[in-house]
Amino acid sequence: MSISPNGTTPGGNQSSVASSGAIGSTDSGEPEAPCHSVKSKFKKKNKYFFGTLNINSLLKTGKLKQMIKVLNDYHIQILALQETRFTDENVMDSEGFRIFKGKPGRNRARGGAGIPHLGTGFIVHSKFVNAVQEFYSPNDRLSILSFRSLNKTYTLINCHAPINVDNKKNPNKVDQYWESLEHEVSKIPTSNVKILLGDFNAQIGRERKHSKTVGPYPAHKRTNRNGERLIELCKGNNLKLMSTHFKKLPKQQKTWKSPNSNLGEFQIDHVAISFNHQKEVMNVKVRKGANIETDHYLTSIKMNFIPLQKVKSRRTPVQRIDRVLLKSRREEFNQKLEVDTNNWDELKEKVVKVALEVAPLKKSAKHP
């Protein structure tokens, strides 16, 4: 908007609104009251980042170190992992994070003991470890982590669904997986905030009949069979899909790149949360710049909640002698102190005892 040299705007003189009485006189003769900021009595909610990633094996040398660097770069506190291919369920710590390993899997297609296959788990920042209440893994495609915040319990359900083609090739295996997932979700207390996340191999489309659950911004036109199963699960357990809730370009939502470059990229990793708590998810973003060796992209989830506070232990107050008073009563101190031992501990005990008698304890000064 342009302002003319005489101080007027296209709507008239700059002071015309103030002088018209619509706002009130600006020249009351009294000094303006200073503006004081009002401090909120409520606990401040902080922003934290969760995430999900199909890691395509953590057995490769240097892969874990590479992943931890990515977590630090994107400030992610809790990450759900799929296809870890770990061979045990031992909890391990690494560079400020704790790794909870789910049930390991084996690919026995070629006979024998098979090679490490599948496996899910969580990697949790050390600041959140004390808040973790429970971790368990029913099978090699599913693991569940519960943790406390200041006023709620959150349960994260980490999923790795069979590929969409298996709905035709091996329907029994697919049915068994989705039934087990439904069973585990139904066991979670209704008071817990449920967060469903992982690699669902599910494409979510823009069909209007699913809009309440899905939201307005899916990356695909049509829903595939795994997508239908995921939507049914969300509807049955009152969950809202958040990976299709925020307005983004479809290319910014794609989480997996096909090995066939002609097919391009797809959004098959998703995030859902209890419907009544959907506002706690502030954003879901695909981090294509994350430097880690996998055909999936890191999905970060910006959360807004109050973390569990550390309980501060009360320190035993330190007994302090008033040294100024003790100096003024030096003669009294010397008269009462009888040194009849060469043992240091006994001598120390007597000196302190007499000093406390002569000079009463000095009260600790309170901070203003």
Automatic annotation (TrEMBL):
Residues 1-28 have a biased composition (Polar residues). Residues 1-38 are annotated as: Disordered. Residues 51-295 form the Endonuclease/exonuclease/phosphatase domain. Pfam families: Exo_endo_phos. One of its GO terms (molecular function) is catalytic activity. SUPFAM superfamilies: DNase I-like. InterPro entries: Endo/exonu/phosph_ase_sf (IPR036691), Endo/exonuclease/phosphatase (IPR005135). This is Craniofacial development protein 2-like. It comes from Diaphorina citri (Asian citrus psyllid).
